[in-house]
Amino acid sequence: MFLVTGATGGIGRTVVRLLREQEKQVRAFVRLTSRYSELEQRGANIFIGDLRQEKDIQKACQGVQYIISAHGSGGDALALDYRANIELIDSAKANQVQHFVFISVLGADRGYEDAPVFKAKRAVERYLESSGLNYTILRPSGLASDLLPLAERFRETGFYLLVGDPKNRTSTVSTDDLARIIVDSVTVEAARNQILSVGGPEILMREDIPKIISRIFNREPLIINPPLLAVDGLRGALGFFNPQAQKALGTFRTLLANEFFCTREEIAKLETTFNFELETLESFLRRRLAV
Ligand SMILES: NC(=O)c1ccc[n+]([C@@H]2O[C@H](COP(=O)([O-])OP(=O)(O)OC[C@H]3O[C@@H](n4cnc5c(N)ncnc54)[C@H](OP(=O)(O)O)[C@@H]3O)[C@@H](O)[C@H]2O)c1
């Protein structure tokens, strides 16, 4: 039995679909407010709880062999990116779980002071490494599926919003490839007790993305490119009313202000470890947008 947290998220939902296609037993950790009917229809076992509650985590881990931690935090890095994962790891040990897959983030080890999610991820990575469990830590770059709404908006309006430096590099990964890597991590020997960066096969500049989308829809893009200063202004103003949201924007700003791409060596290692060729962003978008 696999336990998947964040089962209704971009990554978790894709993982649950893949596991069910392979007819594996899945316990999907969801909230009562989550949109989980599709997962239920696919035959996942629905566990309703809240990752802020230790008791829910302990109960969800009973009788599982594999744990895939793929939840997000919506701004509360301490409770969800940090504490919930520590509790999942402790419960995994108590239940003699065979393998723990943790979805971290590319750059978790760069010491970004202003990004609570990155700090929490690094602390959890360290805790998992010294837990005695079999583990795989995956550090993805940006997800291709997160670009689908932007592409749909482009299809309707011709506009594309690109905040920050258009020359910053990224290696956006196909969400389907990432799900396959996550699922295979529990059986592929070379992935055991490894920290792996996960990106797509190409290093793109962020300005390449609207060009790809424009090629797909055969339409010239109207790119709106506000500077990072706009995010700084928003953060400053928010700080007066909501310090928590201001801190969460620190992670967002870090994502926009820095480069997140995998080296050619990291991609080659990934393809060798999991024995398949990674999909390009253009191929993913054409497949998912059916164009
Ligand atoms: N997206 C990226 O580009 C990217 C890149 C690198 C790493 N990552 C990491 O990958 C992980 C998943 O990302 P994602 O983009 O797939 O996430 P997402 O789409 O934002 O989904 C977040 C998931 O976490 C669940 N969740 C949030 N709070 C919860 C709580 N209190 N109790 C139970 N479930 C809760 C949400 O449930 P609801 O449906 O109820 O809201 C949802 O299923 C995150 O840890 C993220 O840091 C993401």
UniProtKB/TrEMBL annotation:
GO annotation terms (biological process): photosynthesis
Biological classification of the source: Bacteria, Bacillati, Cyanobacteriota, Cyanophyceae, Nostocales
Name used for this protein in its record: SDR family NAD(P)-dependent oxidoreductase
Keywords: Photosynthesis, Photosystem II
Recorded GO CC terms: photosystem II
Domain named NAD(P)-binding: residues: 6-187
Pfam families linked to this entry: NAD_binding_10 (PF13460)
Family matches, as Gene3D superfamilies: NAD(P)-binding Rossmann-like Domain
